Amino acid sequence: MMKEQKRYFLTEDQLPRQWYNIQAEMVNKPLPLLDPKTRQPLTADDLSVLFAKECAKQELDTEHAWIDIPEEVQRRYRYYRSTPLVRAYALEQALGTPAHIYFKNESVNPLGSHKLNSAIPQCYYCKQEGVTNVTTETGAGQWGVALSYAAKTFGLECAVYQVKISMQQKPYRSSIMRTFGATVTGSPSMSTRAGKDIITREPNHPGSLGTAISEAVELATTTPDCKYTLGSVMNHVSLHQTIIGLEAEKQMAMAGESPDTIIACFGGGSNFGGLAFPFMRHQLRGDKKIDFIAAEPASCPKLTKGKFQYDFGDAAGYTPLLPMYTLGHDFKPVNIHAGGLRYHGAGTIVSQLLKDGYMRGVDIPQLESFDAGLLFARTEGIIPAPESCHAIAATIREAKKCKETGEEKVILFCLSGHGLIDMTAYDSFLNGDLINYVPNA
Ligand SMILES: *Cc1c(COP(=O)(O)O)cnc(C)c1O
Predict the structure, then answer these.
(1) Which of 240, 278, 355, 441 has the greatest CB tally within 10 Å of its CB?
(2) What is the CA(325)–ligand 1 centre distance, in A?
(3) Are 159 and 135 in contact, with CB atoms under 8 Å apart?
(4) Nearest residue CA, atom 3 of ligand 1?
(5) What number is the average pLDDT over the span 384-413?
(6) What's the predicted TM-score (pTM) here?
(7) How far is CA 389 from CA 44, 183, 368, 376, 439, in A?
(8) CA angle, 172 then 105 then 108, to 5°
């Protein structure tokens, strides 16, 4: 007999009212962000040229461990939160493992990924501060989609620069952004000076995150009342994402268990930090009981093969210098299907925590990630985002170890999104057209 899938939800009065800011409690704080010209630490004032003031303040806040979630943001979170914590009995059974596998399902909001958790507060703060326009770049498209919707609900204009080649490869993501009222421009474009320069030099440039970032940053800095937003990497983004782990902590208690292992896929670190930090807070000073695992693609292995150093956040070198594990800002990741994980660096908080031994990274080859995604779909009935497949693959590795040792470990992972608009990726896998990539040493 198959055990029924078990799901845990929170009632409205159990929903978290504050985010958790791990920076305030870290033993070694992240190193400061530096101005690339002067090499001086950046202040919140410096950052608020680009970002909403409140986000700039949160970015550098190493004092307050708990930060109130504005009432209006709580109200919008209630449209889709709490998200379910699910015991994956069917997956356990298919693996024949004694491990207890739970996942926090962040794919259930209508936009399909955890990105909305930060898009809502970022747009809220912009609105509060009298900003009228927001802009961003998007590669795979999940961030652009979440921002487009959040901007619309706050009455903000939204301009998204989408990498030209991924706009052609994933046409539905730009359709979704436009449905929510955003202006979507393929990058490089003729609408900015940076774009024009690139096109003049290389008329058929396919675009990259680097070109899209430079265009969005230029728009934000040359347009009055326009701010730039990011969906990953920055500290304030991970802060907003802690809603995931704070809910999960209460839901695990409802299930009467506490996790031995916590796993999330890793692009810039926001869904990982979001799930992990609220649990990690109990062991920043004591014994390191929980095994925290960040699952990255073998083709873009900054945690397992990168260097800890100051580096730019973007390919073109426009951003501040960030202290992080990085493969180098000129690293060109291959065009794997987990688009959200193709980033050369890791967030500064996670980088410091990795350096200090609070967590570890594992790298997952592309074919293993899709094998895991297929097994998950066929057991739990949810088609996971190609990014999330990495977390599932790492979970399966751990569950198989438990089968060998007979340990009944409790494993919790983050299902960061669903893969329903990534079916071309699944088609390629099912047709046998995908291969594994490992960067040259
Ligand atoms: C963007 C994205 C990621 C990677 O970003 P992180 O900041 O590392 O969480 C992972 N999964 C999904 C579904 C995404 O959209």
Answers:
(1) 240
(2) 17
(3) yes
(4) 340
(5) 98
(6) 0.97
(7) 36, 30, 9, 9, 20
(8) 45
